[in-house]
Amino acid sequence: MNELEAINLPAGIRSRQITDVNGLDMHVLEAGYSDPNRPSILLLHGFPELAYSWRKTLLGLAEQGYHAVAPDQRGYGRTTGWSADYEADLKPFYILNLVRDAMALVDALGRSSVAAVVGHDFGSPVAAYCALIRPDIFRSVVLMSAPFVGAPPIKTRYEPEMPALLAALSPPKKHYQHYFCTPDANRDMVEAKMGLQRFLRTYFHIKSADWPENVPFVLSGWTPEELVKMPPYYIMGLDERMPDAIGEHAPSETEEANCNWLKEDELSFFAQEFQRTGLQGGLNWYRCSFLEEHDKELSLFSGRTIDVPSCFISGESDWAVFQLPGGLHKMQNEACTDMKFVSLIPGAGHWPQQEQPDETVQLVLKFLAS
Fold first, then answer.
1. Which of 359, 331, 333 has its CA nearest to residue 347?
2. Which end of the chain is more exposed for a tag (fewer CB within 10 A), N or C?
3. 70 alpha-carbon distance from chain centroid
4. Which stretches of the chain are assigned E, i.e. beta strand?
5. Which contacts of 359-367 are long-range, i.e. CB under 8 A and separated by 24 or more positions?
6. Is the dihedral of CA 138, 140, 146, 149 positive or negative?
7. How far apart are CA 234 and CA 227, in angstroms?
8. Is the pLDDT of residue 243 over 90?
C-alpha cells in the first residue's frame, strides 16, 4: 500500500485506526471524543463514499453533546483486512457481517450501546439491520436516501427477470446495480478515460440537487416501462459503462467552480483514496444483494420489524427515495413501527450530509430530541 497522505480535517475531528474490529483494522473519523460519558452516534456511509463524507456533520453533532463516529466501512478507504479481488469470497461482505463490523466497533469504542446509528445510501440497510437485530445496542436509527422495506420473505416469489425485460426494450437497457456486479465495472470507473477525479465529480454532480433534471416522482410499479423513467445513472444503455452513461452530463467548469458542497480539495481526497483502493470493495456489497444464499440468511428475520425510534432523511432531489416503487410507503407502514418523521431536504439530492450538512444535523438532533 502506498504511504497515506494526511487527511485535511477541521479542528476537532480526529482520524485514527482501531485494530481487531471483526478482523479489520478500521479507520474512523470522530468528534466529541474527549468525554467518555457522551452518548455516541455511529455514522455509516454508502457508495462511492467514505467516513470523510460525514466531515461536515461530525462537529455539528459533537457541539450538541454527542460523540460522533464515522468509519470507513469494509471495502473502503483506510480500513484494511478485506480483499479487493473480484474472485474473493463474498461472505465477508454479507449484510449480517457488516452488522458484526458495526457491533465490534461499538465494543472497541468501549460502549455497550449507541444513541443512534445513521446509515446513508448502502449504509442505510446496514443501519436498518443493526436496529432490527440488536435494538439493545443500536437504540435508534436514522435511515438516509434508501428506504428499508424489511427482510426478504422465507419463500421467494417468482418474478420475471428484470435484466431480460429491460434488455428487451427499444433501445435496450440495464439496471445500474446489475452493471455494478460485472467484472469490468471497477476498472471501467477507476480507469475511466475522463480520469477518476472527473468521473467522481460527474457522478456526485449528476446525483445531486445541482443537476436540474433530478425531479423525482413516485413510480407506479416494478416494471421496465416505469424503471426506464429514471435517470441514466440508474437505468443505463445495455452496452454502456457508467462513465458513458453519465459523461454527457458532466458539470461545466463554471458549475465545478461554484460547487460549494464539494470543493476541489475535498473531491481530490475521494479520488486519491479510490485510486489507491479501487471501487471493488464497495461493488462487492451490490454483488451480495443478488445472491440467493445472502437473501436466505436475511430471511431469518422475515416479518420482524424495526421497533426502536426511527426516521428517514433524504434530499428533495434524490431519486433513490423512489427507485424501489412502493418502498417509502412500505418502510413507513410495515417495516418500521415507530417512525417519527420523513423529511426531504430542499436543495439536496443524494448526498444531503454533504450538500446540506447543517439541515441534516438539525434533523438528526430533532429526531434524537423526540
1. 359
2. N
3. 12
4. 13-21, 24-31, 40-44, 67-71, 116-120, 141-144, 173-175, 235-237, 310-315, 339-345
5. 360/57, 360/313, 361/57, 361/60, 361/61, 363/311, 363/313, 364/41, 364/57, 364/61, 364/116, 364/118, 364/142, 364/313, 365/61, 365/64, 366/341, 367/116, 367/140, 367/142, 367/309, 367/311, 367/340, 367/341
6. positive
7. 8
8. yes
190-240 pLDDT, tens digit per residue, is: 999 999 999 999 999 999 999 999 999 999 999 999 999 999 999 999 999
Q: How many CA atoms lie within 13 A of 243 on its CB side?
A: 17
| Residue 225 in grid coordinates | 416501462
The closest alpha carbon to 204, from 161, 138, 268, belongs to: 268
Q: In what order do the strands lie in the sheet with 40-44?
A: 13-21, 24-31, 67-71, 40-44, 116-120, 141-144, 310-315, 339-345
- Cell 463490523 maps to which residue? 101
pTM for the complete prediction? 0.96
Whole-number Å distance between alpha carbons of 286 and 235: 15
Cα distance between residue 235 and residue 333, in whole Å:
28
Question: Crossing angle, helix 196-206 and helix 264-277, to 10 degrees?
Answer: 120
Q: What is the rounded distance in angstroms from the CA atom of residue 74 to the CA atom of residue 42?
A: 15
End-to-end CA distance of the chain: give it in Å, rounded: 45
Question: What is the distance between the alpha carbons of residues 275 and 134, in angstroms, rounded to a whole number?
Answer: 35
Tell me: the pLDDT tens digits for 337-349? Answer: 999 999 999 999 9
- Main-chain phi, psi angles of 341, to 5 degrees: -165, 160
Q: What is the pLDDT of residues 96-117, one digit of tens each?
A: 999 999 999 999 999 999 999 9
- Tell me the Cα Rg of the chain: 19
> What is the signed CA dihedral for 294, 296, 301, 306, rounded to 10 degrees?
40
What residues contact residue 243 under an 8 Å CB cut-off, 6+ apart?
Answer: 188, 189, 192, 193, 194, 199, 202
- Residue 161 identity: E
Among left, alpha and beta (phi > 0; psi -120 to 50; other), residue 81 is left
Backbone angles phi, psi at 70, to 5 degrees: -125, 115
pLDDT at 157 over 70: no
All structural domains of the chain, each given as residue ranges with its CATH number in brackets, are 13-151+301-369 (3.40.50.1820), 162-282 (no CATH)
